[in-house]
C-alpha cells in the first residue's frame, strides 16, 4: 500500500492590522538581508503495510500566505522533495494550505473505515447479542440492499457462517434471486427477497442497511427494540427511536498509538489507520478476520451511535429487549 503524508503548519491567527512604526520598517529592512532558512519536520508512524508521515512546516498559515514568491517556491520545492523521498502518494491536510503550496495533485486518503466495520460485523453483533445470552440464529434479520451486489453478498457470506435465514430488501429483486439461488445451494442459507421496505423490516429484530434509505418510502414501522446497523446512508429522523450503530471505535496497538501525533488525528482517525493496515482477501471467515484484528493489537473500544459513543448497556436500554428465543 502507498505511504500517506499529513501536512501541517504551525497554529496561530494573523495579528490584527495596525499602523507600522519606524521600528517595524527597520526590522523588515534587516530581515531582508537574513538568509531564508527552514526545515520541514518529519515524523514516521510505521505500520505493517505502509507508513504515515507527518510533515510539519515551521510557519503559520498566514505567514506562508505572506511569503515572497521566491521564498514560497522554496517551501513548495522542499515539501515536494520530502513527499517524493518518502514515496508518499496520498496526502491529507488543510485545504487552504494545500492550495497555497500547490499540492492538490496528490490523492486524498480514500479509506473511511467502512470496510473494516463491515468485515468485523459478525464480531460486533456477537459482542452485542452473544454476551447477553441471545443467539444470532434466533433473530429476524433484514438487510437493505444498496445496489452493490458484491458488497451485499460479502455481508451475506459473513452472516451465513452462523445465520440460516435472512430477508433482503432490494429494488432488483428478480435479478438478486437469480444470483442468490446458487449461493443458497452452496451455503444452505435461506433468503427471502422483497422490494417492499415496510414489509421487509416490519418483523426485524436486526436491520443492516447497505444503501441510501432516502430512496425508499419512509413510512415503515418496526419493533421498538429493533437494532439498526448502518453501513450506508440513513435519514436521522427515520426510526429515530431505535438504536443505530454507525460504526466502531477502535484502539490502536500501543506501539502504534505511541507514535501518532495529534496532528495526524486532525485528518485521519484510528479506524482509518486500522483499515489501511489490513490486506483484504475474500472469502474470510469471521474468526480469521477477528483473529488478524486482535493479533495486530487492535481492540474494539466502542460503537459509534447517532451522535455519540455507545456501550452495550445503551443498546439494551435497561435489559428490556426480547429476542425470539426469550419470548
Outline the structure in words.
It is a single chain. With 327 residues, the protein is of the alpha/beta class. The chain folds into two domains: 3-101, no CATH class; 114-248 and 300-326, 3-Layer(aba) Sandwich (Rossmann fold), CATH 3.40.50. The chain has helices at residues 22-31, 61-65, 69-85, 95-101, 114-119, 121-129, 149-160, 173-187, 197-201, 254-257, 262-265, 270-276, 286-295, 312-316; strands at residues 3-10, 41-46, 51-60, 88-93, 141-144, 165-169, 190-194, 206-209, 227-230, 244-245, 247-251, 299-304, 309-310. Strands 7-6-5-8-9-10 form a six-stranded parallel sheet. Strands 2-3-1-4 form a four-stranded mixed sheet. The protein has a three-stranded antiparallel sheet with strand order 11-12-13. The longest helix has 17 residues, at 69-85. The model is unreliable at 318-327 (pLDDT under 50).
Amino acid at each position: 500500500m502507498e505511504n500517506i503524508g499529513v501536512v501541517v503548519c504551525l497554529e496561530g491567527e494573523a495579528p490584527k492590522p495596525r499602523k507600522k512604526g519606524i521600528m517595524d520598517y527597520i526590522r523588515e529592512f534587516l530581515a531582508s538581508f537574513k538568509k531564508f532558512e527552514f526545515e520541514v519536520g518529519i515524523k514516521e508512524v510505521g505500520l505493517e503495510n505502509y507508513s504515515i508521515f507527518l510533515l510539519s512546516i515551521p510557519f503559520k498559515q498566514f505567514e506562508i500566505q505572506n511569503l515572497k514568491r521566491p521564498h514560497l517556491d522554496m517551501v513548495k520545492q522542499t515539501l515536494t522533495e520530502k513527499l517524493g523521498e518518502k514515496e508518499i502518494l496520498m496526502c491529507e491536510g488543510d485545504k487552504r494550505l494545500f492550495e497555497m503550496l500547490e499540492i492538490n495533485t496528490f490523492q486524498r486518503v480514500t479509506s473511511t473505515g467502512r470496510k473494516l466495520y463491515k468485515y468485523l460485523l459478525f464480531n460486533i453483533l456477537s459482542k452485542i447479542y452473544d454476551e447477553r445470552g441471545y443467539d444470532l440464529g434466533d433473530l429476524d434479520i433484514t438487510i437493505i440492499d444498496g445496489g452493490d451486489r458484491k458488497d451485499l453478498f460479502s455481508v451475506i457470506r459473513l452472516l451465513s457462517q452462523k445465520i440460516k435465514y435472512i430477508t433482503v430488501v432490494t429494488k432488483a429483486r428478480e435479478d438478486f434471486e437469480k444470483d442468490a439461488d446458487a449461493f443458497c445451494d452452496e451455503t444452505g442459507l435461506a433468503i427471502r427477497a422483497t422490494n417492499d421496505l415496510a414489509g421487509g423490516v416490519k418483523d426485524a429484530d436486526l436491520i443492516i442497511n447497505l444503501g441510501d434509505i432516502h430512496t425508499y418510502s419512509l413510512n415503515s414501522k418496526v419493533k421498538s427494540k429493533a437494532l439498526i446497523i448502518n453501513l450506508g446512508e440513513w435519514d436521522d429522523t427515520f426510526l429515530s427511536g431505535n438504536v443505530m450503530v454507525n460504526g466502531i471505535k477502535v484502539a490502536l496497538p500501543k506501539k502504534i498509538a505511541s507514535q501518532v501525533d495529534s496532528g495526524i488525528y486532525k485528518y485521519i482517525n484510528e479506524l482509518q489507520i486500522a483499515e489501511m493496515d489490513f490486506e483484504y482477501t475474500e472469502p474470510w471467515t469471521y474468526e480469521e478476520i477477528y483473529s488478524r484484528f486482535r493479533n495486530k493489537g487492535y481492540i474494539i473500544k466502542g460503537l459509534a451511535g447517532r451522535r455519540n459513543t455507545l456501550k452495550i448497556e445503551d443498546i439494551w436500554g435497561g435489559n428490556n429487549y426480547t429476542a425470539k428465543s426469550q419470548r
